[in-house]
TrEMBL record, chains A, B, C, D:
<dbReference type="GO" id="GO:0005829">
    <property type="term" value="C:cytosol"/>
</dbReference>
<keyword id="KW-0378">Hydrolase</keyword>
<protein>
    <submittedName>
        <fullName>Thioesterase family protein</fullName>
    </submittedName>
</protein>
<dbReference type="InterPro" id="IPR006683">
    <property type="entry name" value="Thioestr_dom"/>
</dbReference>
<feature type="domain" description="Thioesterase">
    <location>
        <begin position="49"/>
        <end position="124"/>
    </location>
</feature>
<dbReference type="GO" id="GO:0061522">
    <property type="term" value="F:1,4-dihydroxy-2-naphthoyl-CoA thioesterase activity"/>
</dbReference>
<dbReference type="InterPro" id="IPR029069">
    <property type="entry name" value="HotDog_dom_sf"/>
</dbReference>
<dbReference type="Pfam" id="PF03061">
    <property type="entry name" value="4HBT"/>
</dbReference>
<dbReference type="InterPro" id="IPR003736">
    <property type="entry name" value="PAAI_dom"/>
</dbReference>
Length: 140, 140, 140, 140
């Protein structure tokens, strides 16, 4: 699947359509095999004890699947999440960024399916595992 | 399933363990059949256009399942979400609160399963449908 | 949502397109609010001990969501399951039929979302809870 | 995660506890990184047109997660599926075996989480993607 948008282009587009998340996320890698997104460690996402909250992990998985999909289909603002299944498996480490590894398993005409693994930076075992479906608007 | 905590008790406990969500949520109803939770309309949760974001809907479903479970098992701070499946079905209405109807389908020794339907206040059709599993710590 | 097919019509169609399931399932009720489908107690679906297997429960949930969707959209053979989330909550009772209560939560242009609760006949508490998404082929 | 049972041991155990699936499944590979299970092409699982049915794909994912878990925990017959999320992404090829690649993402005290990708033998793109949770009985 050739990419239509590179990391800089998709980041810029994300800031335009979701200005409220500006500065929360970064892209470490984006190519045909893998997207690695980063949720910066920030007190806004924290639970007491300094670990990242469940909703912040959901947000990272959701935005990673969105970015991975848009990189393949281009700027389609009406692309929306229709489903997410997420397993929370381990407690995040305190005080570090979270990383998401996203792989697009299917890019169809009307939907994409993306697999996402979340890690605390520097840890080998995943925190959470998610599968997200995005609905792609009709083209033309 | 008799309740161990009423709405006032579980609200107070929620504020103690998750002070960062203080003021975001309210409890409209809590009895053995049904919990109705409310996410107050608030610009922090909004997407451009004034509708509630996916992560805010996830948060509401997650906290509703947590409250419904704790009301039955009592103050068990280590109760954590292990799974969420959520279908996003319709766009939220702008400028209104969101309501969650939560029903505990199973309360086992080590886990609970809760069904949650999300609505824009005043709308008949659900926005989203979620199923959440919480892991309950061993009692002893 | 008015129905395009009644119970007899959709049963007949099911036998035509899936002859291999002939005689496994029955329809107890089909109207705009609710579909009740029945998996006949049959040794083909059993685990040792006489209880129904997980795959047989999945099959019942899947066929119930299919029937509930087709009753609304008519004979569209290319309608296919794209997602199922299922929570197995209790052990089925031995020697009885299984019942599925299916409710269509969303009927969109390209997909349907159906909530399904499974019961052992005569039991009050659900065995399993599923949400299924069907992809609906473009009409034209 | 060191394995407690090898492929021959877990196959033999599977035949003892689930005699009804005897001959349906094979194990191509079982080590600490990966399990590859095979669903033999067999008319019992087929839809008209010769492709494997959704319930047969569910069965393969379910048994693969069971085998991957038991290989790590030993012969624990009461280990049961509590959740499955499955995305059906492509139509199986006709007339070939199905392969499941299963990876245990978490092995906890009371539950395991396994990621499963399903393929038609000889195809590069996955047919389906599943995540399964098994509840592990208390030891001792």
């Amino acid at each position: 699947m050739t990419l239509k948008l590179n990391a800089a282009e998709v980041s810029k587009y994300l800031e335009e359509v979701f200005p409220q998340v500006d500065g929360m996320f970064g892209i470490d890698r984006l190519d045909e095999d893998l997207l690695v997104m980063r949720l910066y460690n920030d007190e806004r996402h924290l639970r007491p004890g300094g670990t990242v909250s469940g909703p912040a992990m959901f947000s990272l998985a959701d935005v990673a699947a969105y970015v991975a999909t848009l990189a393949r289909i281009g700027k389609q603002a009406l692309t929306v999440t229709t489903h997410c299944s997420i397993d929370f498996m381990r407690k995040p480490a305190a005080g570090v960024d979270l990383l998401a590894e996203a792989r697009v398993l299917k890019l169809g005409r009307t939907l994409s399916v993306t697999d996402v693994l979340l890690y605390s930076e520097g840890e080998a075992k995943p925190l959470a595992h998610a599968s997200l479906t995005y609905s792609i608007p009709p083209r033309g």
